[in-house]
């Protein structure tokens, strides 16, 4: 094991926590991800901080809750100056690079106000959420609002897939039996193969780009953190052959839903049930067409990770590289009569989280699972900890997972929190809510789960007795005391944000010992509330004695 | 009235709301401030957002609560990129200048991380909390941690008051009868005159600097906002002749306190009662020595404002200048067995707030008082409104006061909030609290006041039946339902922060009309959850119809 350390931070997009064979999926086989789990710890209660790409990712990349970083919706720029994982890692000499998706929007207005040039090194980092953009690829390039320059398009053209928009025309469209080009955005075509040989589709392409980055960093002898960020299994639900045909409708699991969920549901739940995507995913035909494709996309990722892990193995990188496999949120896929994500049932708010910690200290936990409550914001402090950086609890709201991988601790916190702001959804208009009041909070202590929103009844689930979350107890008198308990927990969390980001706690505590002996501020000459010379002299004498004692030590 | 508009934003430091003759002080005479009140609206329930200089001022200068701007203690740098009053006013072509104190600490680390040079124009503004520093003067220059370069010191030296530290040696020391130099930091010397002729002391000096700024801006034909920010009546409690002898112990008002307040007080209240400054200010001798000086300092400010207002009158500036007179927090002065500020009794958390609005629309409210709940953060949006800028409710958490000065409305909000973080006080050690848990919140609906802190019993006052706040009802069963009501109000406030600062609400609402007719996102080519071509075609047709209807209009 060299003294140099690295981090490989793999994120999928919209991958449910339960769509891996190691997580109990009965038909999907993910042997490579399972292999990683067998060498690390698989967290079974990993919560994202928001149930939508951008906000969840901004939490991952800052180590801070959405209420702190303020990027509340997809497309809301992350404010300039919000410190990122990349900033913290650069401080300890680590190159922190992006290969794939971030869903970051740059705060152009803030940059202009601060006079930061977009094309300066610092400007590029700020615009890319703190990462060095080895390759940025958000994987959403509809022709109508087309970004003409993704490197992936150039790659496709170079390989013979020319088109005004090769991403859409080839990689994300479906091929008919007679060569038709079917619109890959439409769910009905999810059973068709993508119009491209597998090796040229996004997942293998991005995997090779990650290898390229690693080779380059290793050649330079750099410590690195590589964020390999796949767009898949996120829609467009379309996968190249042979993966379009690996799974069929016999392989999909039955939907988790009950008729009771449609009977007087909580108004926010009802509003999302009424969305087109929810109505469609509530139909068997849709599930049976899309889910096999979704599984194929995961299978493809697993195969690609097999190549990547072999590549790392050959180079001895498993000896000094901490590897994380996770996702930015889940996908309802028709469970609870919903499609997409946004709300807080486990299938949306929980993600896979596998942490392979190469240190010998972690040998005792290899292949285990942990049901500790962990949060996506734990990754940034985990990486900083792994690289030997000083903890920044005033800033990073998550906690290092290393005490869990080393077996030193079995839990980190009493509750996990997630947020979603529905002011950008039709639900705001349906519920006639002002924009300001659309913030939803989920809090769980592992046993119960509360969803709190302004002017809304609570949603409340007993996760032990109702793991499928089919019975909302929000109106049950018998649940009132538990609801109140979780509401108090939420209030505590709301009342204690980490907003003092410019100075650490030590800035306050370094004078603690002095305070017991004298008024420490007199050292600065600021004398508050002293009556006369005699009173001041006593404090000055106490100070002299304390300083002399300290100097003797 | 010219079409150009200006704002004169006068702030005192540590001036209680009730130490003005217009506010009912029985002996102190402040005819010039009263004159301003007679031409404007005097707000009797104006709350600061924190009871200590720095955090309160950062709220004033950003229009945001402390939980939002994060400068929780004196000396905690305001994070780079936090948008300020100066930023908003510059956008509408207004020069926003500082003359006096801000208590700002620059976020040097943040500036370095973003590559912003400290000596660039933008760098200077960021370091000065968004202001152009026409003259920065924080008025706290103890010799031991001496800033050798305040312009005021140069001024003193030029006028014959040479010393290593002329601010301390002359302007803030007391003159004995036999020429002795008494330490002005000590309360016992508050009855002595400062060692300097009145015209050279800080208040008249700063007043002249404000006139100088106004002359300069007027000569250039600029619209301006001048923040005239006096250090006084803040300590060192020392005032030049004749003001040291204008008031005597017969002029001071009896302390507002009761023996009951010392009998099993709330632990946080008890901890602050035990501070040296509190014990000293609980002694009659101290109050009788210091308060006449405090009153003299206010009297001096009033006289100087007389000169300033005459100066403005001569130039016709009352025709187009909105004038605010306020303070950053109060001073216990022995009330409630406390000295200094920090806690939330009205004498600490309420401030004078007089708003002179020159517009004819405000003629109907001249000379009136308003008991509406207003907050210090209302000033920034008031100024922006006055200059015709677009409201920024996603960013500015206060509200313009102009609907109150124009008589259009009589109230703005149902509650006011203030915050104080006691992790920098001995109270944290006394109560054995972790740094993270030391945030205190005050919320009042005008009738009741709740103080909430983690792991603390509530403090609770009935402001109508106990205006002196002598009976803490926090443990009274009869108050339980009102306590709960205010706690819910606080939870609502905590749950709905304005954290999405990079885009306005319109970013979300501009598609509201579309949403009623079609899926607006299809315009971008991103197609979420459509089953097939037919379903998509319907939406596209609905979109075409909507666009055609819009174009016909």
Task: Give an overview in words.
The structure is a homodimer of 553-residue chains. Chain A is α/β, with parallel strands linked by helices. Chain A has 2 domains: 6-257 and 272-403, Alkaline Phosphatase, subunit A (3-Layer(aba) Sandwich); 511-552. In chain A, 33% of the residues lie in helices and 13% in strands. Chain A is built from 20 helices and 17 strands. Chain A has helices spanning 31-39, 53-62, 66-69, 85-91, 108-113, 121-127, 151-158, 166-171, 202-219, 267-273, 276-281, 284-314, 346-349, 379-386, 402-405, 426-430, 480-495, 506-509, 512-515, 533-552, and strands at residues 6-12, 41-43, 46-47, 95-100, 132-136, 174-175, 181-182, 224-229, 321-327, 350-351, 353-356, 368-370, 374-375, 416-421, 439-444, 448-453, 459-462. In chain A, the strands form 4 sheets. In chain A, strands 5-4-8-1-9-11-2-12 form an 8-stranded mixed beta sheet, with helices on both faces. A 4-stranded antiparallel beta sheet of chain A has the order 14-15-16-17, covered by helices on one side. In chain A, strands 10-3-13 form a 3-stranded mixed beta sheet. In chain A, strand 6 and strand 7 (181-182) form a beta hairpin. In chain A, helix 9 (202-219) packs parallel to helix 12 (284-314). The longest helix of chain A has 31 residues, at 284-314. The first copy, chain A, is globular and about 100 Å long. The mean pLDDT of chain A is 96. Chains A, B: Pfam families: Sulfatase. Chains A, B: Residues 5-388 form the Sulfatase N-terminal domain. Chains A, B: Keywords: Hydrolase, Metal-binding. Chains A, B: This is DUF229 domain-containing protein. Chains A, B: GO terms for molecular function: metal ion binding; sulfuric ester hydrolase activity.
